[in-house]
Amino acid sequence: MSIERFIEENQRKELLRFSTAGSIDDGKSTLIGRLLHDSKNVCEDQLLAVKRVSREKSSAEKLDLALLTDGLKAEREQGITIDVAYRYFATPARKFIIADTPGHEQYTRNMATGASTANLSIVLVDARNGVLTQTRRHAFIAALLGVPHLVVAVNKMDLAGYSEAAFARIRSDFTDFAAKLSIPDIRFIPISALNGDNVVSRSRNMPWYRGESLLEILENVYIASDHNLIDLRFPVQFVLRPDQRFRGYCGQVASGVIRKGDEIMALPSRKVTRVKSIVTFDGDLECAFPPMSVAVTLEDELDISRGDMLAHPHNVPSAEKHFEAMVVWMDEEAMDLNKPYFIKHTTKLARLRVDEVRYRMNVDSLARIAPAPLALNEIGRVVFTATSPLFIDTYGKNRATGGFILIDPASNHTAAAGIVIDREPPDSLPSRIAGMEPVVASLVHHQSLIRQRERIERWRQKPATIWITGLVGAGKTKIAYALEKKLFDLGAVCMVLDGENVRLGINRELDFSAEGRGENIRRVAEIARLANESGIMTICAFVSPSAAIRAQAAEIVGSARFFEVFAGASAEWCEKRDKTGLYAKARRGEIKNFAGVNAPYDIPASPAIALPVEEISTAEAVNRILTFLRSKGVFPSHA
Amino acid sequence: MDKTGHNVTHLRQLESESIFIMREVVAEFERPVMLYSAGKDSSVMVHLARKAFYPGPIPFPLMHVDTGLKFREMYEFRDRFVKSIGAELIVHRHPQAGTADPFKLGTQKCCAILKTQGLLDAIKAGKYDAAFGGARREEEKSRAKERVFSFRDEFGQWDPKNQRPELWSLYNARLNKNESMRVFPLSNWTELDIWMYIHAEKIPVVPMYFAKERDMVAREGQLIPVDTTVPLRKGEKPQRVMCRFRTLGCYPCTGAIRSTAATVPEIIEEMMTVRVSERSTRVIDHDAEGSMETKKREGYF
Q1: Which of A529, B95, B138, B205 has the fewest CB atoms within 10 Å, i.e. is most exposed?
Q2: Is A256 domain-assigned?
Q3: Alpha helix locations (H) across A58-130?
Q4: CA–CA distance, B145 with B184 (Å, rounded to integer)
């Protein structure tokens, strides 16, 4: 072959990234050494160095191919691989990047790291030991990180007498386990890395195996459809402004295709404009696609900065502050629910709060275990709230916009990797009011020309929010409207906000997800605050089951004028009086997170008024509240 | 090409990844600097930096940690190349550069003082929080585990057992005061990729990479050039040899290979037939088993 033709062909080669995992002594390093050696990617001097060390160690007469890959001194001393190592080799068909990941139990994080960019994973199994705990762990992590192809290499077949039965048993065990994982393509291959059986060329020792050799699989597996070319996601990485005339948004196309002239929407502003040009050093392009790094200029000058995203207006990612993810904990320091971690997602860095660990995974049995803050190498399902919206897709749909890392704000360690998952019905997400910060920081709070004192004099009342909390069926709404009537008759100005009337109007687009319920309460509290500021009393009747959410509502309204009224009754009593059928539905599991049935209700620790509603009438309840308001000088006000 | 026609060749994938890495650094760090050695990897790295920030200039300086022991042709090339692209070059020389005698110090000590210490001093003096290096993981065993964003403590030290995991292309750039980051945008490139890219992009490199007749002396299995200040040892006789340099370091430590490859395609052709690894002509890598790792822990690139 002429060198010109070689160069031309070389430039057309495909790239396959694969990861390898195996337990100690499964022969992973030997396998990689064998792949490099037999595909003639090892240089003579490296081989000589290996021969020299092989002799020094005098472990065996044979060339120790594992020495080609076991890089660090410390590893050689311990005889194990301890960190992800990257190897490079090429055949006439393809170029390969190997992420060689240690299989030692405490290094789950390394396997996840290697798998995060892999098209394919090789999991090694010792033919004599069969499918072990760690084999299951490796397969689970590969599946979790969305590796589309999995090759189970049953190694040391020479020591198992090249037995077809031994191979078949492992295949059957593994298949049983893998049925619970979603891996689109699993292949099995019997090999001996030590002797080279079925590694590069097919083995004569196992005529019963009629499949491809390992290298043949690596060269032929179909990977062309790995990139998502449908959903345009262009995370803005850097705004390039070398002078006044040029403003380019630099970034790598994460998915989809961006074309000159396309109508695009900038997130989070949701402003729409068109692509003016796609600029590169080598000239402007008509279109760009993954994984190209380009600079995009737009027809209109929009306020766009790093961490924003460009997408097509009809196909935008969801902008979420509140989301769920599968998380692999990677730091020695365990998860701390009170720590404000950083999240890095695409090119965006934000603060984030851990809401709840929903469960942890036992990756050996795939069973869910009791929730607890995740420790090193633990995997669990976690609910988060970020301080600003992230532009996310589920990981299954888009690896680039579904993956993120968490950074410990104190140590700066990469604490965890996360994968955004399809949500369960949103009403099962745990509830807390999400972000409290306004989206635009520069907003000004304008002052009214009327002083609060003047309002108090005019209405003969101090503004206050009477927040009635309690279980469904405790009579909150009934008390609220009876109180309003009584106050009205006495000459007060007040209004009622209850769960149903706000959801019929101002909050009608909100669902019963945690975010929806949090937002419902936030808006009610904001309305109460606005009413109070204009001198009007509000009476709010909401279940508001958690102490945290009530505290946040009090914070919004202003705690000095926020009076918590607890309509105290047992769930049994409430259920008996229930005419809505909600309790029955909750008992049947049709409604999740129903306080008093399948979700907790935090009894107020120190309410302004506790009403024993099982024992007193509505009129009596109203009387007690009026007495309280009088004693506090709220109504009538002591002028 | 796949059916949609939206396929990117291997080299363009590497190029795009390197550009992405450089832009991440400029977006996340306050004072980045690019270490420039005048070698072929440096040429490629600088070329990629021009692409990353086009149509703007390279938004950080290049810095040459000069041992004073480089070849004359390298200095000439460096000054010409940097000028031609309009980049800013900082040359940092350790105070002992020029006076330290590499032949008396021995290779290990010489490197520790002039290169490693020189580099650490230069980073500290410039208050740089991120330094790009042209190292590739394929070059040497201990580099196979190096991160793209490689964290260094306040003493510039590397701890191979305590590296930040790197998933997807999400690089953790967070630092505390006085800590720094070494960033390797060419991590995933191989020597063949480098030459293929130099060929495709017509990137200028130091002429020493190309074969011609040079005055050389054979010493301890290495071909050492005598056209500089290398003192001849007893019994050594210079000879005219058709040769070229596969890697370029300091002259006392850089060996040439016998070769007739005088163009980039010829170099590629030679690489495909000669099966000796790239750094075999670097004396320092072979001092002791694991010696590159030892140097890296101390802050060498």
Answers
A1: B95
A2: yes
A3: 73-78, 108-116
A4: 12
**Is the confidence at residue B254, as pLDDT, over 50?**
yes
For residue B283, what pLDDT band results from cuts at 50, 70 and 90?
low
Q: Are residues A129 and A222 in the same domain?
A: yes
Note whether residue A108 is domain-resident: yes
Asked whether residue A609 falls in the same domain as residue A549, the answer is yes
Q: Is the pLDDT higher at A609 or at B224?
A: A609
Window 121-180 of A, Cβ < 8 Å to B: none
DSSP A159: G
Lowest mean pLDDT among A110-119, A364-373, B101-110: B101-110
**Percentage, residues of chain A above pLDDT 90:** 54
Please state the rounded mean pLDDT for residues A211-232.
86
Q: What is the CA radius of gyration of chain B?
A: 19
d(CA A634, CA A6): 89
Q: For helices B10-28 and B40-53, what crossing angle results, to 10°?
A: 70
Decide if pLDDT at B78 tops 50: yes
pLDDT for position A367: 86
Mutate to test the interface with B, among A3, A38, A104 (most CBs of B within 10 A): A3
Test A13 with B9 for CB contact under 8 angstroms. Answer: yes
Q: Is the pLDDT of residue A7 over 60?
A: yes
The reply to whether B275 touches chain A by the CB within 8 Å rule is: yes
**CATH number of domain containing A571:** 3.40.50.300
CB pairs under 8 A between A and B: 188
Least confident of A356-360, A480-484, B70-74: B70-74
- pTM value is 0.76
> Which residue among A11, A117, A279 places its CB closest to the CB of B196?
A11
Contacts of B163 in chain A (CB under 8 A): 83
User: Does residue B176 sit at the A interface (CB-CB below 8 Å)?
Assistant: yes
B111 DSSP assignment: I
Asked if residue A395 and residue A295 are part of one domain, the reply reads no
Q: How much is the pLDDT for A101?
A: 83
Instruction: Name the more confident of B234 and A314.
Output: A314
Domain residue limits at A294 = 234-311
Q: Are residues A189 and A69 in the same domain?
A: yes
- Summarize the confidence of residues A191-210 as an average pLDDT: 92
* Whole-number Å distance between alpha carbons of A420 and A350: 16
Residue A117 lies in a domain: yes
**CB contact B289 to A (< 8 Å):** yes
Other Cβ atoms less than 10 A from the Cβ of A54: the count is: 18
CA distance A120 to chain B (A): 14
List the single residue in B10, B165, B169 with the smallest CB-CB distance to A414.
B165
A256: left (phi over 0), alpha (psi -120 to 50) or beta: left
Helix segments in A470-546, DSSP class H: 476-489, 499-504, 514-533
Best probe of the A interface among B168, B281, B285, by most A CBs < 10 A, is: B168
In this predicted structure, which of A567-581, B135-149, B225-239 has the lowest mean pLDDT? B225-239
Using a CB-CB cut-off of 8 Å, the residues of chain A touching B167 are 112-113, 116-117, 403, 405, 414, 417
How many domains does the structure of chain A reveal? 4
Same domain for A263 and A366?
Answer: no
- Residue B162: count other Cβ atoms within 10 Å of its Cβ: 11
**Does any CB of chain B come closer than 8 Å to the CB of residue A279?**
yes
ipTM for the predicted complex: 0.89
Q: Half-sphere exposure of A14 toward its Cβ, with a 13 Å CA cutoff?
A: 18
Do residue A152 and residue A241 come from a single domain? no
In a domain, A436, yes or no: no
Distance of CA A31 to the CA centre of its chain: 34
Q: A76 falls in which pLDDT band (50, 70, 90)?
A: low
Q: E strands of A427-536, at which residues? A: 465-469, 494-498
Q: Are A213 and A205 a contacting pair, CB within 8 Å?
A: no
